Amino acid sequence: MSVLTLKDYDLKIGDGEKMVVMAGLNVLEDEGLAMEVCAELKAVCADLDLPFIFKASWDKANRSSITSYRGPGMAAGLPMLEAVKAKHGVPVVTDLHEESQAEAVAAVAEVVQLPAFLVRQTDLVVATAKAVAAQGGWLHAKKAQFLAPWDCANIISKTREAAPDIQLILCDRGTSFGYNNLVVDMLGIPEMKKLGVPVTMDATHAVQLPGADPRTAGASTGGRREGVSVLAKSAIAAGADGVFLEFHPDPDAALCDAPSCLALDEARGLLTTLKAVHEAVA
User: Residue 148 phi/psi, 5° resolution?
Assistant: First the structure.
């Protein structure tokens, strides 16, 4: 498997490299909170000598309810991410939802994420792959909840047909299993790595209970916060090259996916453990 290098940063991902940490907020709430979360996670990763990429969404277009908080939007959100980059000197990862957004998002985010629900949308995949490749960034493609690990070969071929020099990472985030539930098959991690690209684990969204938040009678997604560390440790033990995690200073007050995100003060302990697991299995 080839090792990917992020332009303008001393940051690599792949076999033999350090575990990459993509972590931050589920969704941008305000610039001050983004700065606070980034500062803490950057400090933790620096102490642990782990590559860090700050994550935050500027829009959550797939909320269960039309009244749920979606984020500040692209016009306000991308400048927030640029401000975080300028202050903290870290790369950022964020997602997009429409092909018309690809060039603007890729110009700001070193890592652009294809949402799991949209990873088979050809026009979006093609536009995003071309925009990311033009910027020399990484494309972080979430495995859809309805795809088998080996079906990701089609994601790879489609992106490479659009942009032959694309730097692509696959991300597992669980598979639909009956109603209101997701499961993660850890055997899928090595299966995805057989396809020749780095693989990460989105342990936050993998603990979701879609449409099953008792606080809103199903009008939002529930979650099992206590399972995040279990899945993260298991995925690293199975060979994942990085983790995708979401934190908040007050998780229960988070404006999106509160039941699934971790408390910010838990980051150091979890990442310390994950680093040890990664080094043990490397």
Answer: -75, 155
